[in-house]
Design brief:
376 residues; alpha/beta; TIM Barrel; 38% helix
Length: 376
């Protein structure tokens, strides 16, 4: 695939961190991306929380005593979701608070829906983050708006061809515009020469094939498009062309996961998230409700069409006790042949979300934080 006017330049993939294998044979990720474990958070606001308290908790999603593995603390790319999640724009001074410490093995991945932003703006902001913490920033790029048409219009979403936008972004990072290109005189400061590790994000085979042709790593959104996971990873591996920076294909598949001490408790949390999501999509936007609130409050709005959609999405989630979740992640790894499994947890309550990650780490992961520090 080629952008209008010039071929897509190949992106450099930054150096890797120490690898700690899980019991799955596939690396396990929580949040957005990690070689093994990342007690990060998808960060939905629960009833009774403010956006500020949610952000503070999200920044505090650090490895706990039972899940102290090298962490990548993820920020999702959702430009509209009726449960408040995160700012729509990137704010570099705020972002500095969750950048990994220089001596840690942590990385900070961020997913961006590229058509919602000017490529130069992304390059300068993420160039700054890369300068502040070199080699620790992962930039995931998606091609959809990630939202509804009205919100897409409000944030000036462009219908410009995605490969052209991607080519422009990479050229600003690398200074690779062809002679005579009008942007050839524009220098991204910071940005040029400070490109973070770049991934392509997708829920179908389109971005998978593009990532393969460019020799870039690929992450599939299996937590909401699980039916496409196998086809997308197969398309990526089939189309992969080795580059100087990435010789072998490397794929992540995400999964919605909730883990609790028993199957019954986990299913109760999952049911609450399901009902909250249907309520929000049926015309009553609001915070994520707890299981107790779902069971005691009057029924909310309920669209049959939205119920069908949410049921399809949530049906692929892996929910249960540590042994149930471990078995589910094993099966997902076998089916998709993913190099990493990324865990996205939509669950009421910060403490319960963190506990979910702890139980997954205990069940699935090997290695320790101390070992990782020694390697680094």
């Amino acid at each position: 695939m080629r952008a209008e006017g010039f071929a897509l330049p190949r992106a450099k993939v930054a150096g890797s961190n120490p690898v700690f294998r899980s019991n799955l044979g596939t690396r396990v990720v929580a949040g957005d991306r990690q070689r093994d474990a990342n007690p990060g958070s998808f960060g939905p606001c629960a009833l009774g929380e403010t956006l500020r308290s949610n952000v503070v908790e999200d920044l505090d999603d650090r490895p706990s005593e039972h899940a102290r593995h090298p962490a990548r603390l993820g920020r999702a790319a959702l430009d509209r979701f009726d449960v408040p999640i995160a700012p729509r724009r990137i704010v570099v001074p705020w972002s500095r608070t969750w950048l990994p410490e220089p001596r840690s093995c942590a990385s900070a991945p961020v997913g961006i829906m590229l058509p919602n932003y000017a490529p130069l703006s992304i390059v300068e902001q993420f160039g700054m983050l890369e300068e502040l913490c070199p080699g620790r920033i992962n930039l995931g790029l998606g091609r959809s708006s990630g939202t509804d048409p009205i919100t897409a219009h409000a944030i000036r979403h462009t219908d410009e061809d995605y490969p052209a936008l991607l080519a422009e972004l990479l050229a600003f990072f690398r200074g690779g515009f062809p002679d005579g290109h009008p942007y050839g005189t524009v220098t991204a400061v910071p940005g040029r020469g400070a490109m973070p590790e770049i991934w392509l994000l997708g829920s179908s085979t389109y971005s998978a094939e593009l990532a393969g042709e460019l020799g870039l790593p690929f992450a599939h959104g299996g937590h909401f498009a699980a039916g496409n996971s196998i086809a997308a990873v197969e398309a990526y591996r089939r189309s992969f062309r080795p580059s100087a920076e990435l010789r072998e294909p490397y794929a992540i598949v995400s999964a919605g996961v909730i883990c609790a001490d028993t199957d019954e408790i986990a299913k109760r949390h999952h049911r609450a998230a399901y009902v909250s999501t249907v309520f929000s999509l049926s015309g009553k936007p609001g915070p994520l409700l707890s299981a107790e609130e779902i069971e005691t409050r009057p029924p909310g709005p309920w669209s049959r069409a939205q119920e069908k959609f949410v049921t399809e999405v949530f049906s692929s989630h892996i929910v249960g006790s540590p042994s149930t979740v471990e078995a589910g992640l094993h099966a997902l790894a076998r089916r998709t042949r993913a190099d990493e499994i990324m865990i996205a947890t939509i669950m009421h309550g910060y403490a319960d979300r963190l506990r979910s990650y702890e139980l997954i780490a205990q069940a699935c992961l090997t290695g320790t934080w101390e070992q990782a520090e020694q390697v680094s």
